[in-house]
Amino acid sequence: MANENTALVTGGAGFIGSHLVDELLRLQYRVVVLDNLSSGQLKNINSACVFLHVDIAKDPIESVFEKEKPSLVFHLAAQSSVAKSATDPVTDAQSNILGTLRIIENAKKYGVHKIIYSSTGGAIYGEPPELPVDESSPAIPLSHYGLSKLHGEQYTKLYRNLYKLKYTILRYANVYGPRQDGNGEAGVIPIFASLMLSGKQPTIYGDGNQKRDFVHVHDVIKANIAAITKGDNQTFNIGTSKMHSVNQIYELIKEHTSFNKEALQGQHRPGDVYEISLDYSKAQRELEWSPERAFEQGLQETLQYIETH
Ligand SMILES: NC(=O)c1ccc[n+]([C@@H]2O[C@H](COP(=O)([O-])OP(=O)(O)OC[C@H]3O[C@@H](n4cnc5c(N)ncnc54)[C@H](O)[C@@H]3O)[C@@H](O)[C@H]2O)c1
């Protein structure tokens, strides 16, 4: 029998995972975190959770499931950088494919009620012909990262079909907010802000007109909490349907930081999607979720956080 009140969060030392841990603790869950600290940080980890420093792709993890018997698994641990996935695709696949399979296999074996899988709407659709893209659009990733996250989705669905393990897949747009360190999928805001705050010029890759859908981390956490009781065996886009270009973001941060130099120009990076925004109407209908934090407000708060940390 699973412990109703125990939630396992993989990647709980990371940007999104650490906010989720805080919210689950606030909701009175007992929270167990698995993280290898490859991109996550000790300082992000809430001291009220049980933290286990393990690599989900390599270390023994079965004993954790056996001992803790979580009823919920929030699976966020991943190699989360598109750029790194191209330079080291094997490590990317180890964490994102093999690591995911090991988590799901143990979830099945130890009676987990539901797995909530953090996937990507920013990197899974490639360049869809129509925007905002909805969940029925084919997944044609342009990067190793997008492909490895898609494999994770497919294993999740396979275990539902074979073993009745319940899931919800959440495909995030580019997530931003406090604690983001610039390594992950949508690091443009913290990268630009930290450089400009220290008087250094950031690099804009390609023409800077590439556009992204930015969703605030607090809205992403709300989607995860909604998925505890809703959206069984479904996939949802979690985004805003709006877009901001890299050039626009550069200008907004420049204004905020009173930076007075121009950006450096870099080559377009292979694997980077040019334009993406997500249609979230399915999440609105079935998870009763919609984004609440306006981008301008969220960006100001994030910049203030970066300045003071
Ligand atoms: N940030 C975004 O814009 C975004 C967008 C779409 C999807 N996602 C997904 O959301 C999840 C969280 O992303 P994030 O932005 O918080 O990234 P993050 O890099 O801050 O968090 C990932 C965490 O997983 C840990 N980790 C990585 N490999 C591991 C392994 N083999 N074993 C144990 N722990 C491991 C890292 O140390 C880190 O703490 C990821 O699954 C990512 O693919 C993020």
What can you see in these coordinates?
It is a single chain. The protein is of the alpha/beta class and 309 residues long. Helices cover 39% and strands 19% of the residues. The strands form four sheets. The chain has a seven-stranded parallel beta sheet with strand order 3-2-1-4-5-6-11, sandwiched between helices. Helix 6 crosses helix 10. It is globular and about 60 Å long. The protein starts with a strand and ends with a helix. 50% of the residues are buried.
Briefly, what CATH class of the largest domain? Alpha Beta
Number of strands: 13
Shape, please? globular
Fourth CATH level, the homologous superfamily of the largest domain:
NAD(P)-binding Rossmann-like Domain
Number of domains: 2
For the report, how would you describe the main beta sheet? 7 strands, parallel
The proportion of residues forming helix, as a percent range, comes to 25-40%
The strands making up the biggest β-sheet line up spatially as 3-2-1-4-5-6-11
